[in-house]
Amino acid sequence: MKNVLVIDDDEKICWAFQQFLEGEGYNSSIANNAEEGLQRVAADKPDVVLLDVNLPGMSGLEALAEIKTHHPSVIVVIITAYDDVETTIEAMRLHAFDFVPKPIDLEVVKSVLERAFRTQSVRSTLPIDTESDSPTEQRGHRLVGKSEQMREIYKLIGVLASNTTTVLIEGETGTGKDLVARAIHAGSERKDMPFIPVDCGALPDELLESELFGYEAGAFTGAKAEGKPGRFELANGGTLFIDEVANMSPALQVKLLRTLQTHEFERLGGTQTLNVNVRVIAATNQELSQMVKLGDFRADLYYRFKRIALHLPPLRERKEDIPLLINHFLQLVQEELGKQVRGISEEGMTLLQNYAWPGNVRELENCIRSAAALSRSDVILPDDLPSEIHSGQDEVSSEASYMETSLKPVLQHIAKARIAEGSTQLYDEVLSMLDQTLIELALTECSHNQSKTAELLGISRTTLIKKMKQHKIGENGE
Of 290, 311, 332, which residue constitutes the final position of a domain? Predict the structure, then answer.
């Protein structure tokens, strides 16, 4: 018989659970507080526990920690508010199996229980170590969302916070990769130690190496007389967040890989080997797997990062989170602007939910800040929203149509001219010409700042430099 224990102080919910569970063929038992529940777990040894978070006396999270410490094989499913992100992350860190949101949907309960017992069945055939970590204090964060995609992200954060393995966070620009990194750190045993970020896209190679590993006095022109510790040293005992790691040069990738493997490095210009205990979380908006195939990123470093990868969905794939994000940003904006903003009109909300959000959450935040500042009342109206929100889709389609009608004749003219000249490499020649022209245009637009140019083109800085050498761009002072 499959045994399920329900720990909840609401008698109506307990009765409903009991009727449902018995109807599904489970053997059920009830406890109305955590203390009674722990006694029943010890005496009855249930397979699965449905545990409410809000209990009189000992909380559900405290009870979860006790159960996983003394009865690690028991599967615990947490019952909590639908958008209680903090509790979800903490529960997953404490090795809860899953959570059932309120208001309770019995179909969801059925699905979770079926998966739980499938897990028990597999576990019985494998020598799995299920020892739990000791509980730690609940942490805060600024992630917002209750969509299915984000609930899975919260679970992963909770799991990742309980270990120290290297993590790779993938996602488009503006999806909140830095917030996820901070949430993982804040929930880990390293939370009282430093969290040190470094953005590879904001620094040229010669500065990035010294930022990461530090330098000794006289290591290069302009170096401080006393030298300078790098980010690895500053993060010792804590977490180093390496953002936009795809922009790192091949030579620097080698040094980073060695440090990850040995936990040792030397400062720039130094000979003393330094040892550090640092957890590294990397992030990228590039397709590292494609960069590996092109030879722009080391395969061994990629697979080192790829041990655990967390992919953040773009905002267009979780639009149900937009109202929550808007309310969150409005609360922040009100404090900054010193004015009350009650919300957004229904028409305005429809426009925001229909927009594609190429800049993701960061673009939404900037949009709300702008609209709140421009609003003449305590409600944001459609007229307060940026123009692209009103016509973003139309602008995209019109731009595509313009490119097709203007670019196609030019390409046809070039192709016919090369054919007349007897070309046998037409495809490569035309692509090379377009490649060079686009890079030169982007460099001009970005005042020849290579990091900004690479971001504009959507490629890594390493790829940009390789293409500039290929097309001889920038030689002879050009």
Answer: 311
Task: State the DSSP string of 204-215.
Answer: -HHHHHHHHH-B
Provide the residue-wise pLDDT of the chain in tens; the chain has 478 residues: 789 999 999 889 999 999 999 999 999 999 999 999 999 999 999 999 999 999 999 999 999 999 999 998 899 999 987 567 888 888 888 888 888 888 888 999 999 998 888 777 665 544 333 233 323 233 224 789 989 899 899 989 988 988 889 999 999 999 999 999 999 998 899 999 999 999 998 888 778 988 999 888 766 666 676 778 989 999 999 999 999 999 998 889 999 999 999 999 998 888 889 999 999 999 999 888 888 988 889 999 999 988 888 999 999 999 999 999 998 898 888 878 887 787 888 888 999 999 999 999 999 999 999 999 888 777 888 888 998 898 754 444 444 444 555 566 667 767 777 787 888 888 888 888 888 888 988 888 888 888 888 888 888 888 888 888 888 887 655 5
Question: Does 170 share its domain with 277?
Answer: yes
Last residue of a domain, one of 385, 402, 437: 385
Cα separation, 176 vs 10, in Å, equals 37
Q: Nearest-CA neighbor of 436 among 409, 460, 474, 468?
A: 468
Query: What is the number of domains present in the chain?
Result: 4
Provide the token pair at 296: 């722009």
DSSP symbol at 268: B
CATH of the domain at 109: 3.40.50.2300
What is the C-alpha to C-alpha distance for residues 315 and 322, in angstroms, rounded to an integer? 8
Question: 268-273: which pairs have CB atoms within 8 A and are 24 or more residues apart?
Answer: 268/209, 268/210, 268/213, 268/214, 268/215, 268/216, 268/219, 268/220, 269/215, 269/216, 269/217, 269/218, 269/219, 269/220, 269/223, 270/215, 270/216, 270/219, 270/227
Place of tokens 């489970």: 26
Residues 69 and 211 in one domain: no
Same domain membership, residue 59 and residue 43: yes
**134 in any annotated domain:** no
Question: Are both 106 and 157 inside the same structural domain?
Answer: no
DSSP 353-392: HHS--TTHHHHHHHHHHHHHHH-SSSEE-GGGS-HHHHHH
Domain residue limits at 228: 148-311
pTM: 0.69
